[in-house]
Write a structure and sequence with these properties.
There is one protein chain. By secondary structure, this protein is α/β, with parallel strands linked by helices. It is built from 14 helices and 14 strands. The strands form 3 sheets. The chain has a 9-stranded mixed sheet, sandwiched between helices. A 3-stranded mixed sheet has the order 3-2-5, with helices on one face.
């Protein structure tokens, strides 16, 4: 991996710092029955947080993690509480003082919470920067991303809603991105590399480009990018291409997504492109595929802890002599859990000799913040 010093020797004045902007910090914040604030591990996105740790512990880059705190909960509460608009903030049962916020951030910085127990001599990522948003109707920060962007980016039309509702969702989405921009500005130093992740922060590169014109910005997308002939259906097709062009570089999971993005840029926006970049006026935006990987060392280590060993022994007894297929997916309308089960059933019908000789273990979970779109689509029903 290229070091900061190598960049400097080649004439690129980098600071040696990477500011990672993620949708949410890796912790779920809740208040206990005895009125203490505590944090527990957040399921999902472990590969993303592990990559931040790798940069921190195995390279010369100084990494910073910037993210929303997520919804605040009472202990054992399944749905985040909404606070009436007229209620004073100090009367909010989930109100945090500055001291409370600092305590929560200190807990999120711990090794055990972020990445599991650290190895001897291994330091945790102390550079955590929480984005604290208003508590009133706190699920509103997810509405536009989950009910509009998420389905469209997976080739599904969102359910029809009143225009006023979507306008409010969009307003909250803009505020969400602006809150991140304010946090980045507060810690930014010339030469920092700002790395933006995923569809919750589509507007952030453009906002930062206007406010910090000379900054180095990378936007990495773990989701699909629409094919041009599909995106033509949507009035907002140009939006999905234009928002990326505030970055210096755009990364996707696969080369096919890169091709879809380049096609949209040339056919819908009229920009010149080549297989590796988009020419935007007097600048160019680099485009490449960066498949999301896993922390092999951490997985190998965790695979042999006593808890896992006991679980493996139990599965061996239950499935003696059978082939095992293991799947792990979030339970929503686009991750294909229903289709996977139907495919497995069809496989057994086509090849009955495998009945009793193969077992599918499907691990699925429903995020506590799952929004209406994910639970009301025909595929889910």
């Amino acid at each position: 991996m290229i070091t900061p010093d190598q960049y400097k020797k080649s004439g690129v004045p980098v600071s040696g710092r990477i500011l990672n902007c993620v949708t949410q910090l890796p912790g779920q914040i809740f208040r206990t029955h005895d009125k203490r604030w505590d944090v527990k591990s957040l399921r999902g996105s472990s590969a993303l947080y592990a990559s931040n740790k790798y940069l921190q512990t195995h390279t010369d880059w100084e990494t910073h993690l910037i993210g929303w705190t997520g919804e605040l909960y009472e202990e054992n509460e399944t749905v985040p509480r909404s606070i009436p608009e007229a209620q004073k903030i100090e009367n909010d049962p989930l109100y945090l003082s500055n001291e409370d916020k600092q305590n929560v951030e200190d807990q999120i910085k711990s090794n055990d919470l972020l990445y599991g127990k650290a190895s001897a001599g291994e330091e945790g990522p102390a550079r955590i920067h929480a984005v604290w948003l208003l508590r009133k109707d706190q699920d509103r920060w997810r509405q536009y991303a989950e009910n509009v962007l998420w389905p469209v980016l997976h080739y599904q039309l969102p359910e029809a809603t009143g225009g006023n509702e979507q306008i409010q969702w969009w307003t909250d989405y803009v505020k969400f991105n602006e809150a991140y921009a304010a946090k980045v500005r507060s810690i930014y130093k010339p030469g920092d590399i700002i790395w933006v992740h995923d569809y919750y922060l589509l507007l952030l590169p453009q906002i930062l480009r206007m406010e910090i014109p000379d900054s180095y910005i990378v936007h990495f997308c773990t989701y699909h990018f629409l094919r041009r002939n599909i995106s033509d259906v949507f009035q907002s097709a140009k939006f999905y291409s234009m928002v990326f062009l505030g970055a210096n570089q755009v990364g996707f999971q696969s080369f096919s997504f890169c091709r879809h993005f380049l096609s949209c840029c040339t056919r819908l926006l009229g920009y010149d492109v080549n297989p590796k970049c988009v020419f935007v006026h007097s600048a160019k935006v680099l485009v490449d595929a960066f498949p999301l990987g896993v922390d092999v060392a951490m997985m190998s280590k965790n695979a042999f802890v006593p808890e896992v060993t006991a679980k493996v022994s139990q599965l061996k007894k239950l499935t003696s002599g059978c082939k095992l297929i293991v799947g792990r997916d979030r339970l929503d309308s686009v991750h294909g859990v229903v289709q996977k089960l139907e495919a497995f059933n069809q496989f057994l019908e086509l090849f009955p000799r495998w009945v009793g000789h193969v077992v599918l273990i499907q691990v699925s979970y429903t995020p506590p913040t799952l929004l209406p779109f994910h639970t009301s689509t025909p595929a889910k029903k």
